[in-house]
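hey m, so remember when u said the tokens were messed up on ur end? i reran from scratch. heres the input so u can diff it against urs
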Amino acid sequence: MSADSPASLFADTPSADTRRTEAVALYTAFGAGILGAIYGFIVAVVARAQQLDAVDGSFGLLAATGATVVAAVAAGVGFWLARTLPGQEWRQKLPSWKFTVNTISVVIVHAGLAFVMTYALYRVLALGFIGIPVVPFWSVVLMAVTLGLTAWIVYLSVSRMTTQRMSSLLMMFIVVGTLTAMVTTPDPEWWKVHFSQLGTFGDLSSWVFNGTLIAGGLLVTTFGVYIANDMEALADRGVLTSPSGPRIVPALFVVMGIMLACVGIFPVDVNLWLHNLSASGMAVMFLALLIGGPKYFAGMPRTYFVASWTFLAATVISVVLFAVQYFSLTAFEIIVFALIFGWIAVFIRFLGVAGQRA
């Protein structure tokens, strides 16, 4: 079996490589923990009487900022080193610009996820410890633990990146980022307008929402590179029989990612026309992948096509129900987004088992 086949991409790495990766991840966590302790001490000295709640200048926000920096470094180093691991060698053959773009997208997504996860964690802790001050001892301990765990989790994540893992990362990032924007928005009635209203307030919640869309779009473009490798390997084995599929499908994913990023780059209050054009372009790419499935994905398991047509039917029904004003624009946008990312998850799962015996 070739090193570039999907089976090898999704398989566990040999024990020696696994032990080495685990060891480096642990040492990285130790290093980040030490830096976190120093950072926590500086925070305690410079900004006294810190509170847990994540408002401007709070301990939670400072912890999220530190976790972001650590995650970016761990993601960049880990993703670059992982290119020599079994199942990842194909990345060394990528053009330098494409490898660079992929690395940047992986780094941004992990850094963004580290920020929103840490931000949300301290918001929850603040609800349980209302008004409690963070004394120097706990400032050092909490920062050390936060940054150490962040570095450990991120390094392991990027070191074992496969198409399936990337799809899971994409789902988690979009969901967590969007929910964070929802619960921190200054307008509790945003849902009465439309989904994109979350990105119009110019505060931290809007930055989180728009940033989630931009970083998610970058990750979808990287997603296209991984899908191209998987589909080419399946085509070489004769599993996928479409000569154009391994070329067209990744291109559609790249365009979809660009459109998703542009939705965040152009909020409705900045440029309504470009915002709507980007959202529509993303939907068109999604429909093209669904409708063109029998041609582009010939050789995929029959169950995949049943699921694909189900997603298409659900999309059409949603459009009809919105047209007759059965539900609001906000509900329609949420449903369509859920269908798009739900289909991506299903597609990747079946791409991973294509060609395997029942």
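this time it looks ok to me. The longest strand covers residues 50-51. if urs says something different then somethings off w ur setup not the seq
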